[in-house]
Specification:
alpha/beta, TIM Barrel, seven-stranded parallel beta sheet, two-stranded antiparallel sheet, isomerase activity, aromatic amino acid biosynthesis, PRAI_dom, EC 5.3.1.24
């Protein structure tokens, strides 16, 4: 709610039980029902089973799906909902080719690569690695915080930015002042 009241365009609901930010369907339902209008709800999944995703979608009116694992484009598309695919910035990764691979995606989220961790590392990657002229809108993630988000926006010119750890008081607990300050910094960027 703090993010919505501070002016966030979207909030993410993490359906990955290994994450300290994970929410249950019941918690997500309460959050979604309390949101003001025009805030996009994003459901984040990491290599979830089709059954798990279907059950979540049956219970919740999610606007956008975010796939953060090894899901193929066909797997991401099967839910007939807009989605974005998270790509981790591995050394030597051909991001332009990967964007074409996910032609059905609404956007591509670029995150930091850390072996064995699907995201949420709190570490930034070298933004110079992001190629210009990609065929999909880019959502920039990975280690963003109040201190660096304006620079990240200036360097990458993403469609949107995604933050989690950079606005937390502790793992999984958002700091309302950091949320407000981050959104202010994005608007200035």
């Amino acid at each position: 709610m703090a993010a919505a009241h501070a002016g966030a365009d979207a909030i993410g609901l993490v359906f990955y039980q290994k994450s300290p930010r994970s929410v249950s369907v019941a918690q997500a339902k309460r959050i979604i029902s309390a949101l003001p209008p025009f805030v996009t709800t994003v459901g984040l999944f990491v290599d979830a089973s089709r059954c798990e995703i279907d059950e979540t979608l049956d219970a919740l009116p999610l606007d956008l799906l975010q796939f953060h694992g090894d899901e193929t484009a066909a797997e991401c598309s099967r839910y007939r909902r807009p989605y974005m695919k998270a790509l981790r910035m591995k050394p030597g990764e051909d991001i332009a080719a990967r964007c074409h691979e996910y032609a059905s995606a609404s956007a591509i989220l670029l995150d930091t690569y850390v072996q064995g961790i699907p995201g949420g590392t709190g570490q930034a990657f070298d933004w110079a690695q992001v190629p210009q002229g990609l065929c999909k809108p880019i959502v920039l993630a990975g280690g963003l915080a109040v201190e660096n988000v304006a620079n990240a926006i200036a360097r990458v010119r993403p469609y949107a930015v995604d933050v989690s750890g950079g606005v937390e008081a502790s793992k999984g607990i958002k700091d309302h002042e950091k949320v407000r300050a981050f959104i202010d910094a994005v608007r200035r960027g």
